Amino acid sequence: MERPKAPNSEETIISKNDLDRESGTAFLPRFDAQGLAGAIVQHETTGEVLMFAFMDQEALDATRATGFAHFHSRSRGKLWKKGETSGHLLEVKALLVDCDQDAFVLKVRPHGPACHTGERSCFYRQLGSDGLTRLD
Amino acid sequence: MERPKAPNSEETIISKNDLDRESGTAFLPRFDAQGLAGAIVQHETTGEVLMFAFMDQEALDATRATGFAHFHSRSRGKLWKKGETSGHLLEVKALLVDCDQDAFVLKVRPHGPACHTGERSCFYRQLGSDGLTRLD
Fold it and tell me: How far is it, in rounded angstroms, from Cα A135 to Cα B3?
C-alpha cells in the first residue's frame, strides 16, 4: 500500500489564496511582475469598450479615492489622471474584478471622447482581410 | 533671426509611424517589451465583457487563421487555445484595434461559460467599500 503523500504546505497556501481570490468577497488585487493589472474602460450604459490601460496600486487607490479613472502610464512611468489636461475625465460608476483579480472593468460615464484622437472610443477600427476599416 | 531647427529624422519617422498607426488602414500591431498586447473579450450581442487575456503574434495569427480565440498564457509561457480542453471555445466575429494598435477587442460568440470557474463572465464581482459583491 502506498503511503499517502504529505501535503505540500506551499501548494496548499497558494491554492487557498487562489480559492479566496476566485470565490471570496475579499478584494485581493494581483499585480504582475511590472506591478500592473489590466483596466478595461466600458461605457456604463451603452456597454461600448472605450479604452484599455494599466493600473498599478497607486492608480487603483487614486481611482477609488476620487471616483475618477487614474492609470499608470507605461511610457511616462507615472500616475496618469485620464482627462487631467483635456477635461475628458472618466467618472467611475462601478469597478468589476475578474476571477483571479488581475484585471478590472471600469464602468464609466465619460466627460468627453475617451480617445486622445477625439474618437468616442479608442477601438474605432475593425480588422478585415485587407487591413483596418473604420466603424460607424 | 533664429535658424529653423533641422528636423530630427528619427523623431520624424517615429511620428509618421504613430500617425499611420492611429489614422491609417494598415494593421500594424504593436507588442510590448514582453511581446504582448491586451485582448478584451466581449460578447458579440450583449456587449458584456467576458474575459481579459494577452496575445502575442503567434496567438494573433492563430486566432485569425482559425476564427477561434487563442491567447498567450503568461503562467505557462505558451500558446493557449481558449476552450481546447473544456470545449468552451470563443468564436471570433470581429476584431477591433485601438488607436495605437497595442490592444484588441474580440467580439465573440461563446460556446459555453467564458470563465474557468463556470461563470458566464470572469467579471462576476463588483468592488464596494466593503469588499466584493456578486453581480446578478
Answer: 44
User: Residues of A with CB below 8 A from B88's CB?
Assistant: none
Hey, is the C-beta of A47 within 8 angstroms of any chain B C-beta? yes
Looking at the complex, report in whole angstroms how far the Cα of residue B66 sits from the nearest Cα belonging to chain A: 13
Q: Where do the domains of chain B lie, and which CATH numbers do they carry?
A: 30-134 (3.10.20.810)
Task: Kindly report the pTM of this predicted structure.
Answer: 0.89
Euclidean distance between CA atoms A77 and A79, whole angstroms: 7
CA distance B129 to B136: 18
Q: What is the pLDDT of residues B23-46, one digit of tens each?
A: 889 999 999 999 999 999 999 999
Mean pLDDT estimate for chain A: 90
Bridge pairing between strands A49-55 and A125-128: unpaired
Q: Facing residues of A131 across strands?
A: A128
Residue type for position A50: L
| A52 contacts B39 by C-beta, under 8 angstroms | no
The residue with cell 495569427 is: B61
B15 contacts: CB under 8 Å, gap ≥ 6:
none
